[in-house]
Protein backbone atom coordinates (compact mmCIF):
# COMPACT_ATOMS: atom_id res chain seq x y z
CA UNK A 1 0.00 0.00 0.00
CA UNK A 2 0.98 3.64 -0.45
CA UNK A 3 2.61 5.07 2.68
CA UNK A 4 3.10 8.78 2.78
CA UNK A 5 6.32 10.16 4.20
CA UNK A 6 4.61 13.51 4.88
CA UNK A 7 2.98 14.35 8.17
CA UNK A 8 -0.18 12.45 8.71
CA UNK A 9 -3.24 14.55 8.23
CA UNK A 10 -5.71 12.67 10.33
CA UNK A 11 -5.90 10.28 13.23
CA UNK A 12 -7.67 7.71 11.07
CA UNK A 13 -4.85 7.68 8.57
CA UNK A 14 -2.34 7.31 11.39
CA UNK A 15 -4.28 4.38 12.78
CA UNK A 16 -4.33 2.64 9.38
CA UNK A 17 -0.59 3.04 8.95
CA UNK A 18 0.13 1.80 12.46
CA UNK A 19 -2.11 -1.23 12.03
CA UNK A 20 -0.48 -2.13 8.74
CA UNK A 21 3.10 -1.81 9.83
CA UNK A 22 2.76 -3.44 13.24
CA UNK A 23 0.19 -6.17 12.49
CA UNK A 24 1.28 -9.03 14.71
CA UNK A 25 1.64 -12.46 13.12
CA UNK A 26 0.77 -15.72 14.74
CA UNK A 27 3.76 -17.80 15.72
CA UNK A 28 4.33 -20.59 13.21
CA UNK A 29 2.87 -23.83 14.58
CA UNK A 30 5.52 -25.94 16.23
CA UNK A 31 5.66 -28.33 19.18
CA UNK A 32 8.59 -28.48 21.52
CA UNK A 33 8.95 -31.39 23.94
CA UNK A 34 7.62 -29.20 26.77
CA UNK A 35 4.36 -28.65 24.83
CA UNK A 36 3.55 -32.34 24.57
CA UNK A 37 4.84 -33.80 27.82
CA UNK A 38 2.17 -33.92 30.52
CA UNK A 39 1.60 -35.64 33.83
CA UNK A 40 0.10 -38.52 31.81
CA UNK A 41 3.08 -39.34 29.62
CA UNK A 42 5.99 -37.91 31.62
CA UNK A 43 7.16 -41.22 33.04
CA UNK A 44 7.11 -42.92 29.65
CA UNK A 45 8.91 -39.97 28.08
CA UNK A 46 11.67 -40.05 30.72
CA UNK A 47 12.00 -43.79 30.28
CA UNK A 48 12.39 -43.56 26.47
CA UNK A 49 14.61 -40.48 26.40
CA UNK A 50 17.12 -42.23 28.68
CA UNK A 51 17.53 -44.91 26.02
CA UNK A 52 17.50 -42.93 22.79
CA UNK A 53 17.66 -39.36 21.47
CA UNK A 54 14.19 -38.12 20.54
CA UNK A 55 13.85 -35.76 17.62
CA UNK A 56 10.57 -33.99 16.83
CA UNK A 57 9.76 -33.28 13.20
CA UNK A 58 6.70 -31.37 12.02
CA UNK A 59 4.67 -33.41 9.52
CA UNK A 60 1.82 -32.75 7.13
CA UNK A 61 -0.71 -35.23 8.41
CA UNK A 62 -0.98 -37.58 11.33
CA UNK A 63 1.74 -38.74 13.71
CA UNK A 64 4.40 -41.40 13.20
CA UNK A 65 7.57 -42.75 14.73
CA UNK A 66 10.68 -44.47 13.43
CA UNK A 67 14.17 -45.25 14.60
CA UNK A 68 16.90 -44.12 12.23
CA UNK A 69 20.64 -43.90 12.92
CA UNK A 70 20.03 -44.48 16.62
CA UNK A 71 17.60 -41.58 16.83
CA UNK A 72 13.89 -41.78 17.48
CA UNK A 73 12.22 -39.51 14.96
CA UNK A 74 8.69 -38.58 15.91
CA UNK A 75 6.66 -36.79 13.29
CA UNK A 76 3.86 -34.71 14.76
CA UNK A 77 0.86 -32.74 13.74
CA UNK A 78 -1.49 -30.36 15.50
CA UNK A 79 -3.78 -32.25 17.84
CA UNK A 80 -6.29 -31.46 20.57
CA UNK A 81 -4.66 -34.19 22.66
CA UNK A 82 -1.02 -33.97 21.64
CA UNK A 83 0.28 -35.60 24.85
CA UNK A 84 -1.74 -38.74 24.03
CA UNK A 85 -0.47 -38.77 20.43
CA UNK A 86 3.07 -38.34 21.75
CA UNK A 87 2.55 -41.21 24.20
CA UNK A 88 1.31 -43.44 21.35
CA UNK A 89 4.46 -42.76 19.32
CA UNK A 90 6.71 -43.17 22.36
CA UNK A 91 5.17 -46.60 22.89
CA UNK A 92 6.04 -47.55 19.30
CA UNK A 93 9.64 -46.54 20.05
CA UNK A 94 9.73 -48.24 23.45
CA UNK A 95 8.45 -51.54 22.09
CA UNK A 96 10.74 -51.43 19.08
CA UNK A 97 13.71 -50.92 21.40
CA UNK A 98 12.46 -53.92 23.40
CA UNK A 99 12.53 -56.06 20.26
CA UNK A 100 9.13 -55.61 18.64
CA UNK A 101 10.27 -55.56 15.03
CA UNK A 102 8.71 -56.75 11.79
CA UNK A 103 9.79 -60.31 11.02
CA UNK A 104 11.57 -61.18 7.83
CA UNK A 105 9.06 -62.46 5.29
CA UNK A 106 9.46 -65.24 2.71
CA UNK A 107 6.67 -64.17 0.42
CA UNK A 108 5.23 -66.57 -2.13
CA UNK A 109 1.75 -65.16 -1.84
CA UNK A 110 2.28 -61.55 -2.83
CA UNK A 111 1.31 -60.13 0.56
CA UNK A 112 4.47 -58.18 1.34
CA UNK A 113 2.82 -54.84 0.62
CA UNK A 114 0.25 -55.22 3.41
CA UNK A 115 2.84 -56.24 6.02
CA UNK A 116 3.74 -52.74 7.29
CA UNK A 117 0.05 -52.02 7.87
CA UNK A 118 -0.56 -55.35 9.62
CA UNK A 119 2.55 -55.03 11.72
CA UNK A 120 1.44 -51.58 12.86
CA UNK A 121 -1.91 -53.04 13.94
CA UNK A 122 -0.16 -55.81 15.89
CA UNK A 123 1.98 -53.19 17.66
CA UNK A 124 -1.22 -51.42 18.72
CA UNK A 125 -2.65 -54.63 20.17
CA UNK A 126 0.58 -55.14 22.07
CA UNK A 127 0.76 -51.75 23.79
CA UNK A 128 -2.81 -50.50 23.96
CA UNK A 129 -3.29 -51.63 27.55
CA UNK A 130 -0.23 -49.69 28.63
CA UNK A 131 -1.55 -46.59 26.86
CA UNK A 132 -4.94 -46.96 28.53
CA UNK A 133 -3.41 -47.51 31.96
CA UNK A 134 -1.58 -44.19 31.64
CA UNK A 135 -4.97 -42.52 32.04
CA UNK A 136 -5.79 -41.53 28.48
CA UNK A 137 -9.23 -42.00 26.93
CA UNK A 138 -9.93 -44.72 24.36
CA UNK A 139 -10.69 -42.12 21.68
CA UNK A 140 -7.28 -40.56 22.17
CA UNK A 141 -5.43 -43.67 21.04
CA UNK A 142 -5.46 -42.62 17.37
CA UNK A 143 -4.93 -39.05 16.25
CA UNK A 144 -7.84 -37.18 14.67
CA UNK A 145 -6.53 -37.83 11.15
CA UNK A 146 -6.20 -41.59 11.52
CA UNK A 147 -9.57 -41.98 13.21
CA UNK A 148 -11.52 -40.44 10.33
CA UNK A 149 -9.47 -42.46 7.83
CA UNK A 150 -10.47 -45.72 9.54
CA UNK A 151 -14.13 -44.97 8.96
CA UNK A 152 -13.59 -44.02 5.31
CA UNK A 153 -11.53 -47.15 4.56
CA UNK A 154 -13.99 -49.45 6.33
CA UNK A 155 -16.99 -48.03 4.46
CA UNK A 156 -15.23 -48.28 1.09
CA UNK A 157 -13.98 -51.85 1.63
CA UNK A 158 -17.25 -53.17 3.03
CA UNK A 159 -19.19 -51.77 0.08
CA UNK A 160 -16.78 -53.51 -2.32
CA UNK A 161 -17.03 -56.80 -0.41
CA UNK A 162 -20.83 -56.60 -0.37
CA UNK A 163 -20.69 -56.40 -4.17
CA UNK A 164 -18.59 -59.59 -4.26
CA UNK A 165 -20.94 -61.30 -1.79
CA UNK A 166 -23.97 -60.46 -3.95
CA UNK A 167 -22.50 -62.39 -6.90
CA UNK A 168 -20.44 -65.11 -5.19
CA UNK A 169 -21.97 -65.68 -1.76
CA UNK A 170 -20.13 -65.93 1.59
CA UNK A 171 -16.55 -64.67 1.34
CA UNK A 172 -13.91 -67.10 2.60
CA UNK A 173 -10.97 -66.19 4.81
CA UNK A 174 -8.72 -63.94 2.72
CA UNK A 175 -6.61 -60.84 2.97
CA UNK A 176 -9.52 -58.93 1.38
CA UNK A 177 -11.65 -59.84 4.40
CA UNK A 178 -8.82 -59.41 6.87
CA UNK A 179 -7.91 -55.81 6.05
CA UNK A 180 -11.19 -54.05 6.90
CA UNK A 181 -11.74 -56.40 9.84
CA UNK A 182 -8.38 -55.75 11.45
CA UNK A 183 -8.84 -51.99 10.98
CA UNK A 184 -12.16 -52.24 12.81
CA UNK A 185 -10.70 -54.45 15.53
CA UNK A 186 -8.32 -51.74 16.72
CA UNK A 187 -8.03 -52.34 20.47
CA UNK A 188 -9.38 -48.90 21.46
CA UNK A 189 -12.44 -48.92 19.28
CA UNK A 190 -15.78 -49.62 20.93
CA UNK A 191 -17.81 -47.10 18.99
CA UNK A 192 -21.30 -47.80 17.69
CA UNK A 193 -20.34 -47.09 14.07
CA UNK A 194 -17.51 -49.61 14.27
CA UNK A 195 -19.82 -52.23 15.78
CA UNK A 196 -22.23 -51.66 12.89
CA UNK A 197 -19.42 -52.02 10.35
CA UNK A 198 -18.40 -55.32 11.96
CA UNK A 199 -22.00 -56.56 11.85
CA UNK A 200 -22.15 -55.78 8.13
CA UNK A 201 -18.88 -57.66 7.57
CA UNK A 202 -20.13 -60.69 9.48
CA UNK A 203 -23.16 -60.94 7.18
CA UNK A 204 -20.96 -61.40 4.12
CA UNK A 205 -17.82 -63.14 5.41
CA UNK A 206 -16.99 -66.53 6.94
CA UNK A 207 -17.69 -66.15 10.67
CA UNK A 208 -15.17 -68.85 11.61
CA UNK A 209 -12.54 -66.68 10.02
CA UNK A 210 -13.43 -63.68 12.19
CA UNK A 211 -13.43 -65.91 15.27
CA UNK A 212 -9.98 -67.25 14.37
CA UNK A 213 -8.58 -63.75 13.90
CA UNK A 214 -10.05 -62.68 17.27
CA UNK A 215 -8.31 -65.60 18.99
CA UNK A 216 -4.99 -64.89 17.25
CA UNK A 217 -5.12 -61.22 18.28
CA UNK A 218 -5.97 -62.14 21.85
CA UNK A 219 -3.12 -64.67 22.05
CA UNK A 220 -0.75 -62.08 20.61
CA UNK A 221 -1.74 -59.44 23.16
CA UNK A 222 -1.36 -61.97 25.98
CA UNK A 223 1.90 -63.63 24.96
CA UNK A 224 5.13 -62.41 26.57
CA UNK A 225 7.32 -62.76 23.50
CA UNK A 226 7.52 -59.82 21.09
CA UNK A 227 8.29 -62.16 18.19
CA UNK A 228 5.29 -61.88 15.85
CA UNK A 229 6.39 -64.60 13.39
CA UNK A 230 3.99 -67.26 14.66
CA UNK A 231 1.17 -64.71 14.88
CA UNK A 232 1.67 -63.75 11.24
CA UNK A 233 1.88 -67.39 10.20
CA UNK A 234 -1.46 -68.08 11.90
CA UNK A 235 -3.07 -64.97 10.39
CA UNK A 236 -2.01 -65.89 6.87
CA UNK A 237 -3.01 -69.50 7.31
CA UNK A 238 -6.49 -68.22 8.18
CA UNK A 239 -6.34 -66.04 5.06
CA UNK A 240 -5.60 -69.10 2.90
CA UNK A 241 -2.12 -67.88 2.04
CA UNK A 242 -0.20 -71.00 3.14
CA UNK A 243 3.05 -70.40 1.23
CA UNK A 244 4.23 -67.37 3.17
CA UNK A 245 6.79 -67.65 5.97
CA UNK A 246 8.19 -65.48 8.75
CA UNK A 247 11.13 -65.30 11.09
CA UNK A 248 12.72 -62.67 13.28
CA UNK A 249 16.26 -64.05 13.20
CA UNK A 250 16.66 -63.96 9.44
CA UNK A 251 17.84 -67.60 9.50
CA UNK A 252 16.20 -70.02 7.09
CA UNK A 253 15.83 -72.76 9.69
CA UNK A 254 13.75 -70.44 11.88
CA UNK A 255 11.19 -69.60 9.18
CA UNK A 256 7.62 -70.39 10.21
CA UNK A 257 5.58 -71.27 7.14
CA UNK A 258 1.88 -70.38 7.43
CA UNK A 259 0.62 -73.57 5.79
CA UNK A 260 2.85 -75.86 7.86
CA UNK A 261 1.57 -74.43 11.12
CA UNK A 262 4.82 -75.36 12.80
CA UNK A 263 8.35 -74.15 13.16
CA UNK A 264 10.24 -75.99 10.48
CA UNK A 265 13.01 -78.28 11.76
CA UNK A 266 12.03 -77.77 15.39
CA UNK A 267 8.59 -79.24 14.79
CA UNK A 268 6.73 -77.12 17.33
CA UNK A 269 3.06 -77.17 16.47
CA UNK A 270 1.03 -73.95 16.50
CA UNK A 271 -2.08 -75.92 17.47
ZN1 LIG B 1 0.57 -46.44 15.98
Kindly describe this structure.
The radius of gyration is 25 Å and the shape is globular. Helix 5 packs across helix 9 (207-222). A hairpin with an 8-residue loop joins strand 5 (245-247) and strand 6. By secondary structure, the protein is α+β, with helices and mostly antiparallel strands. Mean pLDDT is 89; it is low at 1-9 and 263-271. It has a five-stranded antiparallel beta sheet with strand order 4-5-6-7-8. It folds into two domains: 33-97, no CATH class; 104-270, no CATH class. It contains ten helices and eight strands. Zinc ion (ZN) is lined by residues 88, 92, 120, 124.
Shape: globular
Stretches with pLDDT under 50, minimum 5 residues: 1-9, 263-271
- Strand proportion, as a percent range, falls in 5-15%
Largest sheet: 5 strands, antiparallel
- Ligand identities: zinc ion
Q: Briefly note the structural class of the backbone.
A: alpha+beta
Give the distance, in angstroms, between the N- and C-terminal Cα atoms. 78 Å
Fraction of helical residues: 40-55%
- Based on CA atoms alone, the radius of gyration comes out at 25 Å
User: Please, what is the average pLDDT?
Assistant: 89
**Count of helical segments?**
10
Number of domains: 2
Write down how many β-strands occur, each being a DSSP E stretch of 2 or more residues: 8
- Enumerate the strands of the largest sheet in spatial order, edge to edge or round the barrel: 4-5-6-7-8
Q: Helix-strand pattern, N to C?
A: HHHEEEHEHHHHHHEEEE
